[in-house]
Amino acid sequence: MTQLSPILSTNIEKAVNCLRQSDTVCILTGAGISAESGIPTFRDKQTGLWENYRAEDLANAGAFERDPNLVWSWYQWRRNLVKDKQPNPAHHALARWQQAWQQQNKAELTLITQNVDDLHEQAGSIATHLHGHLWKNRCSKCDAIYDMPIDYTDAQLIHCPHCQGFIRPDIVWFGEGLPVDEWLHAKLSARTCQVFITIGTSSIVYPAAGLVDLAKYSPYQAKIIEINPNPTDNPMVDIQIQAKAGEALPQLVNQLLSE
Ligand code: NAD
Ligand code: ZN
């Protein structure tokens, strides 16, 4: 395990002390937690074929309307990029923590993610996905779930067998609403937690970024912990852990679970 700087060790210890006194914890993860698994975030510059495009301009409802071929082929390319990626020590540490608390019936840990990959599930966590799933598809016209196998090396658009609309990834794009049940669950968890942890998110993609405000200003006045090597300038953060998730989380979880 990596040697941490004294300031980092102190802040992890502060976080552990705070978590030991809590019954309800809500965690929000973003693209940064999967960065060490080799999945680029949206802040990373795109490479190869797509280097002249901004991810935000492709993960976009308007873009699919204007040019469905372009957006579909970008997603097929991303799926190829992601398909062999595996959970990293951060995903594993969160899964271990969630399972341990569940088995001990000790306290509640709710995991909410903005990620569309399934690395939390691969690691053994139960996570609520606010932005959908990279591996699912649906019709852009009639919303029917399209669960036939798809060849990810084929960039050709597929038509819906019911209405001939275009098949699209079941992902929430910029400009679209969040899935209702998942969003209600996330808001409730944020409002009722005593500690809220954001991991690997730039906290600029709303409405998910607003969860931290809900937690801070709830009757429980949750303590806010941020894990990010590039801290955001969010003034609500109480404990800043300036490190990669894959370095900080295993340490934090080891200390927390060793009573
Ligand atoms: P973002 O791209 O806006 O920000 C990523 C954040 O992660 C940055 O603040 C960065 O400093 C931080 N980071 C980078 N490496 C890290 C590490 N090793 N450990 C911890 N933090 C690290 O991501 P976002 O806030 O999640 O929002 C963008 C949108 O992008 C989301 O809606 C999400 O659905 C989508 N997205 C998902 C994936 C994925 O599923 N893996 C990948 C890219 C983008
Ligand atoms: Zn259809």
Tell me what you see in this structure.
This protein has 259 residues and is α/β, with parallel strands linked by helices. It folds into two domains: 6-39 and 87-131 and 178-257, TPP-binding domain (Rossmann fold); 48-84 and 136-171, SIR2/SIRT2 'Small Domain', CATH 3.30.1600.10. The protein contains nine helices and eight strands. Helix 5 packs parallel to helix 9 (245-257). The mean pLDDT is 94. Zinc ion (ZN) is lined by residues 139, 141-142, 144, 160, 162-163, 165.
Put the structure in a nutshell.
The protein is built from 9 helices and 8 strands.
Kindly provide the radius of gyration, computed on alpha-carbon positions and rounded to a whole number of angstroms: 19 Å
Mean pLDDT value: 94
Span of the ends, CA to CA = 20 Å
Beta-strand portion reads 15-25%
Biggest sheet layout:
6 strands, parallel
Count of DSSP strands:
8
Molecular shape:
globular
List the SSEs and their pairings.
Elements: H1 6-20, E1 24-29, H2 55-58, H3 61-66, H4 68-82, H5 89-104, E2 108-113, H6 119-123, E3 128-129, E4 132-139, E5 167-171, H7 180-192, E6 195-199, H8 211-216, E7 223-227, E8 239-241, H9 245-257
Parallel strand pairs: 1-2, 1-6, 2-3, 6-7, 7-8
Antiparallel strand pairs: 4-5
Helix pairs in contact: 1-9, 5-9
The structure holds nicotinamide-adenine-dinucleotide and zinc ion.
